[in-house]
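Hey Z.,

So I finally got round to the glutamine thing we talked about over coffee. Here's the setup:
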Amino acid sequence: MPNYQTAISSKLPNASTSIFAVMSKLAHEEKAINLSQGYPDFPSSPELIDLVSQAMKEGFNQYAPMPGIFSLREAISDKIKTLYGTHYHPESEITVTAGATHAIYTIITALVQKNDEVIIFAPAYDCYDPTVRLNGGKTIELELKAPDFSVDWEEVKTSISEKTRMIIINTPHNPSGTVLSRQDMLKLEELVKNTNIIILSDEVYEHLIYDGLEHQSIARFPGLAERSFLVASFGKTFHNTGWKMGYCAGPKALMEEFRKVHQFNVFSVNHPVQKALATYLEDKAHYLSLPKFFQAKRDLFLDAIKDSKFRFKPSLGTYFQLLDFSQISQESDLELAKKWTKERKLASIPVSAFYNKRTDHKVLRFCFAKSDETILKGAEILNSIE
Ligand code: PMP
Ligand code: GLN
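And the result:
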């Protein structure tokens, strides 16, 4: 194809291909065990798949209503009320989206204006910063503090200015596997009182939380819920990241702005899958069983590598485990992740990719949402690295 001659003024001049795509592609080419990108290697529920197929056969193959089908929004509203005690009205306060990424894009596009500041915490999930920049905003990236990746609320306080439009939080946290405590949420609530700050609360791993901890959803805190968007992902919850389904909940006035953008960047999302999810959500065990299921996988992984040279603190949430390799190598985490994919046939994610400044703490992220067999094969490779 001839080269495009017109000068392109890139809206994201420094953006490269996402690290998740890069590492999964390399793992595939190298036939390596892929503990990099966050997705399960075991099947989604056959019952859920049957429900989708049934909905297709019953004719739910045309556009769904713009905000999502009502029965699914009702089921989501019931779930949030049961778990976190707050009622979101299904008519006006919940919208079904094409995964959490789409919800995040829509929220930022609807609410962040030119020169607005958005506070994010690094290591941060990769889509926040570019989306803010695409909308003319500026990200203020604060680093979570070692060794627990905790938030320094004093630093947050001094970083808030008249320009601060939004704060993005993520709990349980990708990639660190830490969770925000009730105290953290109360501090945030206190800090944003009497401001115009909107919170985007990325809770895609809400059901993946371990050691008896309780997920501190934004919805539990009235002073936060009234100014927040809660973002969730069915892909993470029901082992089908490829379906790209999620939702967003928030107070009516915020949701009205959300929908103004939603209707133009997607209009509505997959109809038969919405039908199926509405039915599947009726059985609470489908998500309440997840902590036990994933904690067993985390424990299998950590027990298998306990005598390795990697240092770690057990992940408290998400399906990611960080491993510190500083006793093994001083190479950059990116170089090492690529090298081990090629030479050791084990793929991971370098945590520096989650920092704008590419801060390298000599830590790699491993996904344990895998069959026990895959986990043990990965562990065997880690044990052989000296
Ligand atoms: N936020 C975080 C923290 C994530 O790890 C992911 C990756 N799944 C997303 C958002 C995006 O979720 P989805 O696949 O539903 O778009
Ligand atoms: N959330 C997934 C992860 O952190 C990746 C999603 C994606 O590839 N965009 O690995």
